[in-house]
């Protein structure tokens, strides 16, 4: 072929491009000029690496604070991926079992990675450094992770997120305002001494409560629990995956997280100061919170022993198999 003549396949592509741009009333030739002058895309621009690496701003001189910040950021990115998958399930116009289970597999994978990497916090910080730099971060706390709360809201009916003491007492299960009032984490974040709302909670509510209420309304009829129970209530593979997700999200990740509190905060009241103010030993354990996204998928015994098997496995791995 004459080197100066246009490859017919390329000509075909140009024709298609011309049609595409013509539909929008655009002149392809101007866009081709643009292509001629524009730079090649680089990896670092594509993923905004410079911006990403400018987002770690320790408040103290302790080197381990950077580890603490980055691990929180990594977790928030995974939370974002989990929400992204849930959103795609909820927005799907023609939800199939295949799509539902494949996206659940992804969510499970993200949570497993988070659970398995928590050693970065549990073993990867010097306690002396942690207890000092943590004081400079008050009253902020991971408790204020809005994405964590959104994952909960999009996964189940709000009534399952009400504090365990009020769960049976709230009569009208579709009264969102009332259920938001009694969400478990709002009841949990009370000051040790006075019983007042912690500042950590007050600030969190001020910033996000409206979003949580709106999201609760939006997901009232399309949270994961509603969707599986209307579309695939009998599917064994869906049920198996939902149980795995429930366990990871409400027992295994919380226990991995709690190990970090146990390592750094112990029982010393001075250490407890380095938190958002909850009595975490009473608040964090899954067996006290009793949060289940899909309670109907667990037997009465499994529910009454919520979190127990995982704790036993962590304490006595040799007995678990
Ligand atoms: C050394 C590491 C950590 C320690 C000692 C720790 C400690 C605590 C404590 C004591 C609480 C109870 C609330 C409070 O009083 O502040 C809490 C809640 C929480 N933290 Fe952490 N945390 C650590 C790392 C993380 C990380 C990496 C994340 C990831 C985003 C995280 C997310 C959360 C969430 C979502 C809650 C609320 C849990 C719930 O309401 O059930 N934490 N944390």
Helices and strands, with pairings:
Blueprint: H1 8-23, H2 28-37, H3 43-46, H4 49-52, H5 64-91, H6 97-117, H7 119-122, H8 127-133, H9 146-155, H10 176-181, H11 184-188, H12 199-219, H13 224-231, H14 236-265, H15 269-272, H16 280-283, H17 286-289, H18 300-304, H19 308-315, H20 317-320
Helix pairs in contact: 5-6, 5-9, 6-14, 9-12
The structure holds protoporphyrin IX containing FE (HEM).
Protoporphyrin IX containing FE binds next to helix 5, helix 14 and helix 16.
Fold and architecture overview:
The protein has helices at 8-23, 28-37, 43-46, 49-52, 64-91, 97-117, 119-122, 127-133, 146-155, 176-181, 184-188, 199-219, 224-231, 236-265, 269-272, 280-283, 286-289, 300-304, 308-315, 317-320. With 321 residues, the protein is mainly alpha-helical. The protein has a single domain (65-310), classed as Methane Monooxygenase Hydroxylase, Chain G, domain 1 (Up-down Bundle). The model has no long low-confidence stretch (mean pLDDT 92). 26% of the residues are buried. The structure holds protoporphyrin IX containing FE.
Q: Notable features of this structure?
A:
binds protoporphyrin IX containing FE; Methane Monooxygenase Hydroxylase, Chain G, domain 1; 63% helix; 321 residues; single chain; mainly alpha; 20 helices; globular
Please summarize what this structure is.
The protein is an all-alpha fold and 321 residues long. The model has no long low-confidence stretch (mean pLDDT 92).
